[in-house]
Amino acid sequence: MTTKPIYLRSDTVTRPSQEMRRAMYEAEVGDDVFQEDPSVNQLQEYATELLGKEAALFVSSGVMGNQICLRVLTSPGDEVVCERDAHIFQYESGSPAVLSGVQLMPVEGKAGVITPEQIEPCIRPIEAYYMPRTKVIEIENTHNRAGGTIHPIENILRVKELAKKYDLKLHLDGARIWNASVASKIPVKEYASHFDSISCCLSKGLGAPVGSIIGGTKEFIKEAFRVRKSWGGGMRQIGIIAAAGLYALKNNIERLEEDHQKARMLAETIAEISSCEIDLISVQTNIVIFKSNALNVLDSIERCSEAGLLISEGKPGYLRMITHLDVSFDEIEKSKKILNNIFNKK
Ligand SMILES: Cc1ncc(COP(=O)(O)O)c(C=O)c1O
């Protein structure tokens, strides 16, 4: 009998639990294009409250959430300032250009953080009609490529001041804002309050099979609803998956603390291996990024996979492990042994 591999490639791999499936099975549904699906409406009302925004909208994915927000906040020819390793820059298929006609101004940050001192010189002079128009500053919290790092609230407040000075909008890619909130003990509501729009995922650490939520003013969400439909994102009896999202929000936020503990255990194991490099300070939530000086990335992934541990490449040259609710403490112990066997070659 083959044993089940330990899946640390992503926190998107979780499968709906029995309880979540029961909530889906029992969900009351209607036609959401007419805004008549009770389960979707319930999810959106609950999320509105949780995010402390005027309104919220259920969308199919994190990419869709970010891209709808950018579309609503910008006009073609505008520019969005973001960190160089931001998901919207690295992993969203060039969608800001394709879907909104805007370009990105990536700025090299530290641990995913760009400061007002770095952003200010990138803001285009208002009188320079021949340049793109700076419209939005985007922040990712936690920051995926930086290794799940939390964006310090002090910097968010300073960036907000800058945005105010130049009349810019602020968007938060909060795919893992729940992890940031649990680890920093800063309520999601507080993070969200500093942004014009927020997008957050239900299908990562929270364990729902599909979906993200975007939040903003009533006017913003009304426009987002229109954009979602125009992109073919209007779905019908979608309460069946909204119920999973609502279950995730009600039951799976606090437990993220456990995923953070597990990531810490893995990170400390790596830190003990002399052939590996890791910045323990960057391990703040459920992501562990490290480098092997003994094996290249592909060989590392292959050797781990042969031993039953599935890991992936993070940013180029680095390995990544992500903990989630479908990986047990027992599997973390087994992972530690595998990592030691593979990388601890003195
Ligand atoms: C920070 C961040 N934003 C957005 C997304 C996109 O989410 P999805 O895969 O649901 O489109 C991801 C996915 O990994 C992410 O890590």
Radius of gyration: 21 Å
Major β-sheet strand ordering: 2-8-7-6-5-3-4
Number of domains: 2
Distance between the termini: 33 Å
Which structural category fits the helices and strands? Answer: alpha/beta
Report the bound ligands by name, code or SMILES. pyridoxal-5'-phosphate
**What is the third-level CATH name, the topology of the largest domain?**
Aspartate Aminotransferase, domain 2
Commentary on this structure:
- This protein has 346 residues and is of the alpha/beta class.
- The protein has two domains: 18-251, Aspartate Aminotransferase, domain 2; 255-343, Aspartate Aminotransferase, domain 1 (Alpha-Beta Complex).
- It has helices at 18-26, 38-51, 62-73, 87-90, 95-100, 116-119, 153-165, 177-184, 188-193, 218-230, 239-251, 256-271, 297-306, 329-343, and strands at 6-7, 55-59, 78-83, 103-107, 133-140, 169-173, 197-201, 212-216, 276-277, 287-292, 309-310, 312-313, 319-322.
- A seven-stranded mixed sheet has the order 2-8-7-6-5-3-4, with helices on both faces. A four-stranded antiparallel sheet has the order 9-10-13-12.
- Helix 7 (153-165) links the parallel strand 5 and strand 6 (169-173).
- Helix 1 crosses helix 11 and helix 2 packs parallel to helix 11.
- The protein binds pyridoxal-5'-phosphate (PLP).
- Residues 61-63, 66, 87, 140, 144, 173, 175, 201, 203, 212 line the site of pyridoxal-5'-phosphate.
